[in-house]
Design goal:
The chain is an all-alpha fold. About 65% of the residues lie in helices and about 0% in strands. The longest helix is centred in the middle third of the chain and has 42 residues.
Length: about 150
Amino acid sequence: MREHVVRKARAAWMAGFLIVLAGFAVVLLFLVQSFAGVALLPQRGPEVPAAWLDVTAKRAPGPLRNLMPRTLPSGLPLGVLALATMMLGATIARRQIPVLEAARLAAEDRLRRARQYAGEQDADGRIEPYIGARVADVIDVEVEPK
């Protein structure tokens, strides 16, 4: 695998992770604002009419009616947008995993082959043929397969 492809995949993974982290910070601020009652996020945004919330509260079962809010928090649109941003960042990071995994496996294989060619063998005592070997040298025709 080419090095520039791996570098780009690592950078994209890191960017996706940072996007998730930024979205998490905004969602965390929204939660703190909602539970503590402190205005940490902008107060502007679309308002849901109170009549809609009253209709929803009337449909809820008895014990849940008291738990339904009378108004929605003002930072809700920003919190939902931040949650969508977190999902986008996670998607970006997740799409880079196969490239990074292939690069990791190639590096492990490269190290294993260097160790093997230096005279060491694998744990099972197997030595792989080198690239220029003929097929007849690699396959033992007298031994029948199990």
